[in-house]
Amino acid sequence: RSQTEHHTGDSILENLSIEMVSQIPLDYMHLVCLGVTKRLLQLWIRENKSNRLNAENINLTSQHLINIKYCIPSEFARKPRTLLDIDRWKATELRQFLLYTGIVILKSTLSPLWYNHFLSLSIAIRIMANPQLCTKYLAYAYSLLLWFVSNYGVIYGEEYISHNVHNLIHIANDVKIFGCLDNFSCFKFENHMQKLKRKLHNCGKPLQELSNLIFE
């Protein structure tokens, strides 16, 4: 608590015998996939001219996504969709784009600087998502994330450096403590969410309702 002015009280989590900073890891499903990756795509297709791709490259990227969906193996839960559907992309689709399809598709539509910047994030996350690579090349992944974050403001503008972008430099430390990203990501709980939702009745207080159901 080095900045006491930002604290208004004590958290009940402090009663647990864990370290509040190092023992509560960041979730890459929300931080990287739904956060940074989705925001990059939105910058490329919607923001001001300095950050936005031209209409031709936006359409070309979308067409590549449509064409490549016929080559996606059954191991992937979803097929690629056009950039026009970006607001409805699920976390698994964004992960697929970051780690697989985006590497191929964006090479012909992004400038070399933008592409290498995206590639640094993709490679870093791929390393940290692999149980073997994350132990051998974690320092390299961390250096890639540092480069990505330090150049984010230079490329897109300081005003676009979000909390998610900043936290990328901390996720490597979580991998050092807990192992590969999938050891502590929310992806494994996604299918279980439907089971929980079916138990709720839209009372406006889902947490209280679920708690009552558990203790009935």
UniProtKB/TrEMBL annotation:
Q: Where are the transmembrane segments?
A: 97-117, 137-156
Assigned keywords, A-Z: Membrane, Transmembrane, Transmembrane helix
Q: What is the protein named?
A: DUF4218 domain-containing protein
- Per the UniProt record, the source organism is Harpegnathos saltator (Jerdon's jumping ant)
